[in-house]
From TrEMBL:
<feature type="transmembrane region" description="Helical">
    <location>
        <begin position="144"/>
        <end position="163"/>
    </location>
</feature>
<feature type="transmembrane region" description="Helical">
    <location>
        <begin position="223"/>
        <end position="247"/>
    </location>
</feature>
<protein>
    <submittedName>
        <fullName>Uncharacterized protein</fullName>
    </submittedName>
</protein>
<feature type="transmembrane region" description="Helical">
    <location>
        <begin position="267"/>
        <end position="290"/>
    </location>
</feature>
<dbReference type="Pfam" id="PF03706">
    <property type="entry name" value="LPG_synthase_TM"/>
</dbReference>
<dbReference type="InterPro" id="IPR022791">
    <property type="entry name" value="L-PG_synthase/AglD"/>
</dbReference>
<keyword id="KW-1003">Cell membrane</keyword>
<feature type="transmembrane region" description="Helical">
    <location>
        <begin position="112"/>
        <end position="132"/>
    </location>
</feature>
<keyword id="KW-0472">Membrane</keyword>
<keyword id="KW-0812">Transmembrane</keyword>
<feature type="transmembrane region" description="Helical">
    <location>
        <begin position="193"/>
        <end position="216"/>
    </location>
</feature>
<keyword id="KW-1133">Transmembrane helix</keyword>
<feature type="transmembrane region" description="Helical">
    <location>
        <begin position="30"/>
        <end position="48"/>
    </location>
</feature>
<dbReference type="GO" id="GO:0005886">
    <property type="term" value="C:plasma membrane"/>
</dbReference>
């Protein structure tokens, strides 16, 4: 929480804060409504991905129940430190469907699919950068992609260490992830379903960011949406802030000038993205919190 505040204060000192605030105040509410709609599609696709994954692992989970739980989890991830608090709650709230182990596996595998899809899209934009942009790829983007890959390697190493040295219950849970991954992603050509859903979710992320820029009357060119925005979104994966706040704005401020746009426009777009993403999940989260969890299998 402290790091998030410090990052935001630092950004406020490095940019013309009044300009960024003016951009947000004058945002076109019609585009903001469009962002709200796209966020609903985003949650729906993510929830369906979770439901498909859970059913493949033997968990009883309906789409309506998955959607409500995903709203609640998303709100938690965006508003609490670490970025996974909402997912932990999703595991706990749905532990009765197939046990804590299967519930945790389905959530973990579903989130991993989303992060891998974002990484693939980011790498694709990076590879295409020389063809789409007039300038050389920024060093910051290279460092971010390298950091994401190193985190992925670290996860694999931690996985192997846990399987080898952890207590039997934890080691067994980790050892079962391999077969569960195969069942959820590869068996019966599930990679087609998982891939389509995950790329669809990433597309909604990009769309929300692009529409936020439109609302500020500083539209992003298509090349910016497919090259720079994925890097901004990838920064949110680094678990050092609350909901990516501060880190996301810093990266946007650094990369927007590559497009010939102001850092203030980048920060304003990022702030609007964060606010809308958070507010758009509140109604669905209240729906989940207030409704009894009695229709898991409907």
């Amino acid at each position: 929480m402290l790091l998030t505040v410090l990052l935001l204060l630092l950004i406020a000192r490095l940019i013309e804060l009044e300009t960024a605030i003016a951009l947000i105040r004058n945002a076109d509410w019609r585009w903001m409504i469009a962002c709200f709609v796209v966020v609903q599609l985003q949650v729906l696709l993510s929830a369906i991905r979770w439901q498909v994954t859970a059913v493949r692992l033997g968990q009883v989970l309906s789409v309506p129940h998955a959607v409500r739980e995903y709203y609640l989890a998303t709100l938690g991830n965006l508003s609490l430190p670490g970025g996974i608090t909402g997912d932990a709650a999703r595991v706990y709230r749905n532990r009765d469907a197939a046990g804590v182990g299967k519930s945790a596996q389905s959530v973990l595998i579903e989130r991993l699919a989303g992060q891998l899809a974002l990484l693939v899209v980011t790498l694709g934009g990076w590879v295409l950068w020389p063809l789409l942009m007039d300038s050389a790829a920024p060093e910051l983007g290279e460092k971010m992609i390298l950091t994401a890959l190193l985190l992925l390697v670290a996860l694999v190493l931690v996985f192997r260490l846990v399987v080898r040295f952890a207590p039997p219950s934890v080691a067994n849970f980790m050892a079962e992830l391999g077969p569960s991954l195969y069942c959820a992603w590869w068996a019966d050509r599930q990679w087609l379903v998982q891939g389509a859903l995950s790329l669809g979710v990433v597309a909604t992320y990009l769309a929300v960011f692009a529409i936020c820029a439109l609302a500020l009357q500083h539209p992003l060119p298509f090349v910016g949406v497919v090259t720079i925005v994925p890097l901004v979104l990838l920064s949110m994966v680094i678990p050092i802030s609350i909901g990516g706040w501060g880190v996301r704005e810093a990266v946007a401020a650094s990369l927007w000038p590559v497009l010939g746009m102001s850092a203030e426009a980048g920060v304003a777009s990022s702030v609007l993205y964060g606010v809308i993403s958070l507010l758009a999940t509140i109604p669905g989260a209240l729906w989940a919190a207030l409704r009894p969890s009695d229709d898991r299998c409907l």
